[in-house]
Structures are given as C-alpha cells and as structure tokens.
Amino acid sequence: MASLTVDVDGFTWNIDDSGAGPAVVLCHGFPGLGYSFRHQSAALAGAGYRAIAPDMPGYGGTDRPAGVEQYTAVATADRLVGLLDALGIARAVFVGHDFGAPAAWTTALRHPSRVAGLVLLAVPYAPDRLRARPTELYRKMARQHFLHLHYFQEPGVAEAELDPRAREFLQRLFFALSGEYRYLDVWNHPSEGNGYLDVLPQAPALPWAWLSEEELDTYAAVFDRTGFGGGLCWYRAYDANWLASAPYEGADITVPTLFVAGDRDPVITMSGPGALERMSAAVPDLRGIHLLPAAGHFVQMERSAEVDALLVRFVSDVVSPAGSAE
C-alpha cells in the first residue's frame, strides 16, 4: 500500500492507496485506521480494483477538525465526495465499518450518483432516528450500568485514562469486542467510579489467529502519537449527528448493498430487535446479509478471508475490473 497525503480545500487526508481500476473506498470506525482494511486492500488490488483506505477525520495522519459538527455522517459524506473529486474518481463502491458504516450510507443517501455500491460491516442501516437526543438516552442508561457511549462524552476524561495506555487499551478492546468474549458483560459494572480499563477484560497474550504483535504495534504507534481524542469526537458528535440526519429519516438506500457482520457482534444486539429486518425493508437492492459464525465486531480482521471473498464478489457484480467506476 502507498500512503498518500491529499489536500481537499484545506483539509488533509491520509490514505492508503492500493492497486488500479474501479475504486473502492474503505471507511473505518473506532479505534481504527486505514490500516484496519489491510487484508481487504490487498484482496481488492489483486482482483483488479483500486482500494482507497483513508484514516478517517480525527485519526492517524488525517486532519482533526475542531467542532463536533465536523464529525457527523453528513459532514463526513461530503468530505468523502471531495476526496473522490481530488482523486479524479467519478464513482466508487463505499465500504463502512463501525462509524464508517453511517458515513458510507449517508454518502449513498446524499450523493447516490457517486456510489456504485455499498458494503456495511457490523452496523446495519437504520432508517429511523432515535426518539430523543442520544446523550439523554445514554445518561439514563448509565444510571444502570457502565456505558462507554456515555463515558466518552466529557472531553478529556477518556483521553486522560486511555492515551497513556494506548497499546493496552487497544489489545483489551479488540479482544472484548471479538467473537471470543461477550462484550455486553461490560455492562454489568456500574458507571460510578469506573473508567473503561476498569471494566474491560484482560486480553490473552498475542499472537491471536487474527492479530499479531506487529499489527498491534502498528496501531499503538499511531495512537501513542495522536491520542484517542480525534476518534472520541465521533462519539461526542452523537447529538449533532442526530440533528443533521433528520432529513434522511425513513429514507431508502437505492444503491446495491451488502451487509456482513459477525454473528457474535454486540452491535447487532445493541441495534435492537428486528434491526436486520428493518434494514432489509429500507434497502430494495440488498444483495445479501452474511453473519459469519463465531466472529465479533472486527469482522474484517477476524474473518478476513471470508470478508475478502464476499467483498470482491460484490464489487465484481457492480463494477467491471477492466473498466472504471464511472
């Protein structure tokens, strides 16, 4: 992968750019980097596609804008289209994991002519908004148990805990959200007096089947340099995102779409009963729902070969490797 810096109207993106051909843009979530799609980038490049995996706003070598409104899915979708313009790309397949999934589907809602296809990893499309401000709901839930969505809201609190222990936090969170652990057990802890490292499980020693010491070192080196504050801005933008997404409530996604998740991903449970059925009803051209056995939240790493195969097959169905994604 070639690491490139791209300026778009004064905003600097850092992207991993691999291969040549129709473009696939891979959008990570927390606590990720463009590096999180290293397996998929290699598979796509090998199959005749151009894989573009940016560090998302606030992460790695990409700018960290001031103001949480800059981290909404709407703001990010518009920045992603600006990135396509700067790279001379008319259309691309968008892949989104975790926070990257709403960013990707919002790009499809706001700019459908620029999206040749959509792949959602871990987070099912939710056509309906919450009935109240997210932070109000999280505050109530935090009275009952520890909730990272609430803990991350106050600027500086989580940074003070996590930045000095970046590698430990990453290893423990990757394990806690994997198919080897039941993440919702974290909720058994009270909020009062606890930080995130107080409630996360200890992680087994590396290497794991899907993560090596060297790969974790790569993540840790970046977050040792940048801290977690940029990534935490995505959590602190929940209310701003709730307001910005109002025009798209109930909207259907019209582009070809694929959904892939681990069958042990706690996000499926947290999305509520019937989440997959609601997504199916709002995505007329849904090409499949794949729940990979024994995988957790980081499905693109835990089950990289299966995700690679599903992704390449989907991309080949919606664009031609010999042509372009126009």
What does this structure look like?
The chain is of the alpha/beta class. It has one domain (2-318): Alpha/Beta hydrolase fold, catalytic domain (Rossmann fold). Helix content is 40%, strand content 16%. It is built from 15 helices and eight strands. It has helices at residues 38-46, 73-87, 100-110, 134-141, 148-151, 157-162, 166-176, 196-199, 213-226, 229-236, 238-244, 266-270, 275-282, 299-302, 304-318; strands at residues 2-8, 11-18, 23-27, 50-54, 92-97, 115-121, 257-262, 286-292. It has an eight-stranded mixed beta sheet with strand order 1-2-4-3-5-6-7-8, with helices on both faces. Helix 1 packs across helix 15 (304-318), helix 2 packs across helix 3 and helix 7 packs across helix 9 (213-226). The longest helix has 15 residues, at 73-87. It is globular, with a radius of gyration of 18 Å. The model has no long low-confidence stretch (mean pLDDT 96).
Kindly state the number of beta strands: 8
The CATH class is identified as: Alpha Beta
Main beta-sheet strand count, sense and barrel state: 8 strands, mixed
Q: Which radius of gyration do the C-alpha atoms yield? A: 18 Å
- The CATH topology comes to Rossmann fold
CATH superfamily: Alpha/Beta hydrolase fold, catalytic domain
Annotation field: number of helices: 15
Number of domains: 1
Point out poorly predicted stretches: none
* Helix and strand composition category: alpha/beta
CATH architectural designation: 3-Layer(aba) Sandwich
Order of strands side by side in the largest beta sheet? 1-2-4-3-5-6-7-8
Helix content: 25-40%
What is the molecular shape? globular
Q: What percentage of the residues does DSSP assign to strands (E)?
A: 15-25%
